[in-house]
Amino acid sequence: MNLIKKITRRSFIKRSILTILSLELVYVFFNLLKKSNDRLKPDNLFEAGKLDLFEKNRVYPFSSRRFYLSRLEDGGFLAISTKCTHLGCTVQFSNNEGKFKCPCHASAFNKYGEVLAAPATRALDIYPITIQNDTILVDTEKPVKRTKYESSQITYA
Ligand code: FES
Fold first, then answer.
1. What are the structural domain ranges in the chain?
2. Ligand 1 and 119: CB distance under 6 A
3. Which of 1, 26, 114, 132 has its CA at 20 to 30 Å from residue 7's CA atom?
4. The pTM is what?
5. pLDDT tens readout for residues 1-41
6. Helix (H) and strand (E) counts for the chain?
7. Nearest CA to 90 among 49, 112, 61?
């Protein structure tokens, strides 16, 4: 009863307004934080993992994202599409043979995605790679068509 008497109607309204404003500020702050994180890593960038997870001279499948991450002998990276450039079948990487093979018409590609055997006539597409804070991000929305492999396509940390 005493407590109710101490809190006047005016002070109650003031406290209510302050509480609502505080909650609003917290909401705005977390939204700004979320937006700044979104700017750092847009939805189209797939996080493949930290650099040290990938050994040199190995190819890692990311089947759900339809690419292979090829870490080359000098430490550079290529994100190579699984889509065969002949008619679009899914290529498989053979660790034993060190090459991509297409099950449909037997095209083959090396670890850079270059054509080793027809009927495909151009290299496998690649995806742009960004490395932030030692993390590999692959833009799986933007396949890059190429006729051949060039060293400028490699991404380094
Ligand atoms: S679709 Fe790959 S060789 Fe024809």
1. 2-40, 45-153
2. yes
3. 26
4. 0.74
5. 555 556 777 777 787 778 777 777 766 666 665 555 555 56
6. 2, 11
7. 61
